[in-house]
């Protein structure tokens, strides 16, 4: 089904019982534009508790914590800029409690940030090339990262690398994305790569 271009976008869903598209009540309308980064924005992280904050990363080497005001004139304001990376910040995620941000950068490092203070509380050093993707486990006790060095690294929150999956058993090209499964009973990591494969680890 082709949705005609308009200033608003109607969401369509397929009714499995009638096999016909249904128009949902929701409509996507631009509510505001937030400007503070000075280069390409690379990632957005939102908290699971629906609080009025978001975090963004950018090629301007910074991370910005935004407060959503939902005001017509300024839908959100930059509350804090987190700096410390020496190259593009490629990815950013939030802990499940929304208190910490985790970033990965082309400087080869991960950083853990206390959002209340804006301070980088931990550096994760071990990758030899750009870090492309980072993730928290559901309980926030473990961290996983993926890199252009073709490795996946599992860390604790103290910044200690506990395990490395290298190209011998892992991917043959850049590892572009990595995520934890939300299932805490069977801890699982899923990775994707430029080698055209998705791999599952536990």
Automatic annotation (TrEMBL):
What stretches of residues are WD repeats?
34-76, 82-123, 124-156, 168-202
Q: Does the keyword ATP-binding apply?
A: no
> PROSITE patterns, per this entry?
WD_REPEATS_1 (PS00678), WD_REPEATS_2 (PS50082), WD_REPEATS_REGION (PS50294)
GO cellular component terms, semicolon-separated: ribonucleoprotein complex
The record's Pfam families line, in alphabetical order, gives: WD40 (PF00400)
UniProt-listed InterPro entries? RACK1-like, WD40/YVTN_repeat-like_dom_sf, WD40_PAC1, WD40_repeat_CS, WD40_repeat_dom_sf, WD40_rpt
- Source organism's superkingdom? Eukaryota
What family does this chain come from, according to its entry? Belongs to the WD repeat G protein beta family. Ribosomal protein RACK1 subfamily.
In its UniProt entry, what is this protein called? Guanine nucleotide-binding protein subunit beta-like protein B
């Amino acid at each position: 089904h082709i949705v005609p271009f308009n200033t608003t976008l109607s969401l369509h869903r397929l009714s499995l019982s009638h096999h016909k598209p249904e128009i949902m009540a929701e409509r996507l309308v631009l509510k505001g534009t937030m400007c503070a980064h000075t280069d390409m924005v690379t990632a957005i992280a939102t908290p699971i508790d629906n609080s009025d904050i978001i975090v963004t990363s950018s090629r301007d080497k910074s991370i910005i914590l935004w407060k959503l005001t939902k005001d017509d004139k300024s839908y959100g304001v930059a509350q804090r800029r987190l700096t410390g990376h020496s190259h593009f910040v490629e990815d950013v995620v939030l802990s499940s409690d929304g208190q910490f941000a985790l970033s990965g950068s082309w400087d080869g490092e991960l950083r853990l940030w206390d959002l209340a203070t804006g301070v980088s509380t931990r550096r994760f050093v071990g990758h030899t090339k750009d870090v492309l993707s980072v993730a928290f486990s559901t309980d926030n006790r473990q961290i996983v990262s993926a890199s252009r060095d073709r490795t996946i690294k599992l860390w604790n929150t103290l910044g200690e690398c506990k395990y490395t999956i290298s190209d011998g058993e892992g991917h043959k090209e850049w590892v572009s994305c990595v995520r934890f499964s939300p299932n805490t009973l069977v801890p699982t990591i899923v990775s994707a790569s430029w080698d055209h494969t998705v791999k599952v680890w536990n």
